[in-house]
Design goal:
The protein is mostly helical and about 140 residues long. The chain has a single domain, classed as Globin-like (Orthogonal Bundle), CATH 1.10.490.10. The chain contains 7 helices and 2 strands, in the order ββααααααα. A two-stranded antiparallel ribbon has the order 1-2.
Length: about 140
Amino acid sequence: MNQFSNQENNTQTLHSLVGDQWFVDLVERFYEGVSSDPVLRPMYPEDLTDSKKWLTLFLQQYWGGSREYEGLRGHPQLRMRHMPFAIGAAESEAWLSHMTKAVKAGGLPVEIEEGVLAYFASAAEHMINKNETGLIL
């Protein structure tokens, strides 16, 4: 769900409502949590600059902004891009926890926030690629 209907029954994207900077700030808040998370931090490079850049561009594109991400990296293929990392329930839940905190601090109207959080919950679950025994799925 990357579009919302307003009272005039016009469809708007999240990006058109909040602009580029909202996504930059969201990603900064998210990585503040990730940077000290014992489960997630080992999965990221020491320098988070590129990770922040790609997540920001992806989210801006997904929610209706510039297609710069696709122009630079091609189709997002999220699950394929995350396959090198063993992602189980613990990793998925930690990721979603940090993203939820970041979204909730973003000042969105409740009905829009709920849609954004639903997307991230679905995305976090979709990234799981190992079971509780460590078997890659």
